[in-house]
Write a structure and sequence with these properties.
Strand content: 15-25%
CATH topology of the largest domain: FAD/NAD(P)-binding domain
Helix content: 25-40%
Low-confidence stretches: 1-13
CATH architecture of the largest domain: 3-Layer(bba) Sandwich
Largest sheet: 8 strands, mixed
CATH superfamily of the largest domain: FAD/NAD(P)-binding domain
Number of helices: 17
Shape: globular
Number of domains: 2
Bound molecules: flavin-adenine dinucleotide, NADP nicotinamide-adenine-dinucleotide phosphate
Radius of gyration: 24 Å
Length: 543
């Protein structure tokens, strides 16, 4: 009863609410956006479907979840005191630590009071008469705001494949991207894991260490580079903090926004022995920097083959059973799908309780009450883990009924694939922004600096409008078309275009095959955004 009254009170307060800006999502993007707007004195409110902050790190609580960009770089840089006071414990922080960090940021900047949790936005429509966005939630609230900012995440809409019979399954079924808060124990259980992307690569070794038996259903083998995760020492942390600004500045000059050793050499112009030494060195250092070995790896198939062969050789060395090793050795281009970073993934297949089931030719036919059926073989399982990824980049936004001028539906507008100006805004949808939207570098980069760059750009744009007594900003159709053509042209020139990845939307049945992120690199993208702003928001219509 008490609870109901409180809830009712809260809804009616929201119902009356008019804001300068509504932000959808309270992950790293939503948190920083809220902070920036509050600092500018704007009335902003964030609406978050989860019960807490942290986004990715709130939802992805599966065993083994951790970042694969080093923690000292996968962190905010907008506040020097924050940067100095936070101590990362490991080279790659695990999910609980990343979630603590997000909570620390929310508390430190006193953001919680402006966030409505357990609140999912279901509709956002631009009211042309009022010139305002009307935002509706699953709790029946209607808010109005001058600006609507989607901080809904690139990898936040879980992909639940439509397996026949899934609803008849009698065991426990989990998706890595919405893992329960209560501890899940697989001790003594038979577990079926579907998928072999990053989430599976991280979780399978830990699940296998607990479970009685694990069946891994693999449709496409994936490349993974060892993480060589280590605890960070005080001396290392001190050395980073002593000159954080220089590290961050160096990172901003790289394609990915990550400070690591990118070589300008070409694989095909390097003698084979020297090349192997270079790959060996990077393999032992670990992590995503492996692909920085040569400049031509992502543009020349023959160059790429040299790196792919090297990694396949390593997999064959690690996996004892040659048949299993061959199945685990990927056949496609390395780096075409997102490279994985692992801790003991391939070695896990040497355990007697782990079985690899190849579903590349014969797909999972159905889920039965007892387990997973492939062909005429049923794999009985007490639990199923769906490590089946996300409807990436557009999924979370399009799960909201977004309406622009004349009631135009964003779902309709993006039917043939997403189109944006700079990944930030959409023609026909005034005062709507997306943080790390399709057409921005986002998922091809360290996302923390990318998020900060977007948030700062949006905040500066709103400040620009306010200073000139303006209230509306919207990209022109030609500017949007031009950007779309540029994004597509660059995408076509890389090997990333050549496989069925989620970058292209291929993992979602019916999704248009469009390479969604901007592949021109972080510095080039930032330069373009800065130029647009310096020219009075060129390509945008202001009123
Ligand atoms: P998110 O963290 O996804 O937050 C979006 C929030 O919006 C969510 O909390 C969601 O509940 C909310 N939301 C969505 N729709 C609605 C709605 N309709 N109504 C209300 N709320 C809504 N990137 C890296 O750079 N390095 C890494 O190492 C890395 N590791 C990753 C590991 C995993 C397991 C995953 C899934 C992603 C990883 N990423 C990594 C990408 C990661 O998503 C970003 O780094 C970053 O956390 C994104 O922050 P965000 O705030 O933009 O989005
Ligand atoms: P993912 O990379 O999309 O992998 C999904 C897996 O599920 C793939 O192996 C896919 O096979 C498989 N799959 C999907 N539908 C299937 C079906 N119907 N039958 C059989 N197999 C099916 O998803 P993810 O692992 O969650 O990772 C998504 C992204 O999140 C990553 O690429 C990365 O950017 C980020 N992430 C990062 C980390 C990290 O290390 N920090 C960890 C997790 C996630 P196909 O390949 O054949 O489609």
């Amino acid at each position: 009863m008490m609870h109901t009254q409180v809830e009712a009170g809260r809804e009616s307060a929201l119902a009356k609410a008019d804001f300068d800006a509504v932000i959808v999502g309270a992950g790293f993007a939503g948190l920083y956006m809220l902070h920036r707007l509050r600092r500018m004195g704007m009335r902003a409110r964030a609406l978050e479907a989860g019960s807490g902050v942290g986004g990715t790190w709130y939802w992805n609580r599966y065993p083994g979840a951790r970042c694969d960009v080093e923690s000292v770089q996968y962190s905010y840089q907008f506040d020097e005191v924050l940067q100095q006071e936070w101590d990362w414990s490991e080279r790659y922080a695990a999910q609980p630590e990343l979630l603590r960090y997000a909570n620390h940021v929310a508390d430190r900047f006193d953001l919680r009071g402006e966030i409505e949790f357990d609140t999912r936005v279901v509709r956002a429509a631009f009211d042309e008469a009022q010139g305002r966005w009307v935002i509706e939630t699953n709790r029946g609230a209607r808010l109005s705001a001058t600006f609507c900012i989607m901080a809904t995440g690139c990898l936040s809409a879980p992909n639940l494949p439509q397996f026949t019979g899934l609803e008849t399954y009698l065991g426990a079924c989990y998706h890595t991207g919405c893992w329960p808060h209560a501890e899940v124990s697989f001790a003594g259980k038979r577990v079926a894991v579907i998928g072999t992307g990053s989430s599976a690569v991280q979780s399978i070794p830990i699940i296998a260490a607990q479970a009685k038996e694990v069946f891994v259903f693999q449709r496409t083998a994936n490349y993974a580079i060892p993480a060589h995760n280590v605890p960070l020492t005080d001396a290392y942390r001190a050395s980073i903090k002593a000159d954080y600004a220089t590290l961050r500045a160096r990172a901003r000059q790289t394609m990915t926004g990550i400070d690591f050793d990118y070589s300008d050499a070409l694989a095909l112009e390097t003698p084979a022995e020297e090349r192997t030494r270079e790959y060996e060195l990077r393999w032992h250092r670990g992590g995503l920097a492996f692909l920085g070995a040569y400049k031509d790896l992502m543009v020349d198939q023959a160059a790429n083959d040299t790196a792919a062969d090297f990694v396949r050789g390593k997999i064959r060395q690690k996996v004892q059973d040659p048949v299993v090793a061959e199945l685990l050795a990927p056949k496609n281009t390395i780096g075409c799908k997102r490279l994985c970073v692992d801790i003991g993934y391939f070695e896990t297949f040497n355990r007697p309780n782990v079985r690899l089931i190849d579903v590349s030719e014969r797909p999972i036919e159905t889920i039965t009450p007892a387990g997973v059926k492939v062909g005429d073989r049923e794999y009985a399982a007490d639990a199923i883990v769906l490590a089946t990824g996300f409807d990436a980049m557009t999924g979370a936004i399009l799960r909201i009924d977004v309406r622009g001028r004349g009631g135009m539906a964003l779902r309709e507008r993006w039917r043939e694939g997403p189109c944006t100006y700079l990944g930030l805004a959409v023609a026909g949808f005034p005062n709507l922004f997306a943080i790390t939207g399709p057409g921005s570098p986002s998922v091809l980069t360290n996302m923390l600096p990318t998020i900060e760059q977007h948030v700062d750009w949006i905040a500066d744009a709103l400040d620009y409008l306010r200073a000139r007594g303006l209230s509306h900003i919207e990209p022109s159709a030609p500017a949007e078309d031009g950007w779309g053509a540029h994004v597509a042209e660059l995408a076509g020139s890389t090997l990333r275009y050549t496989c069925g990845s989620w970058y292209l939307g291929v993992n979602i049945p019916g999704k248009p095959r469009v390479f969604m992120p901007y592949i021109g690199g972080f510095p080039r993208y930032v330069a373009k955004c800065n130029e647009v702003a310096a020219r009075g928001y060129e390509g945008f219509m202001l009123s």
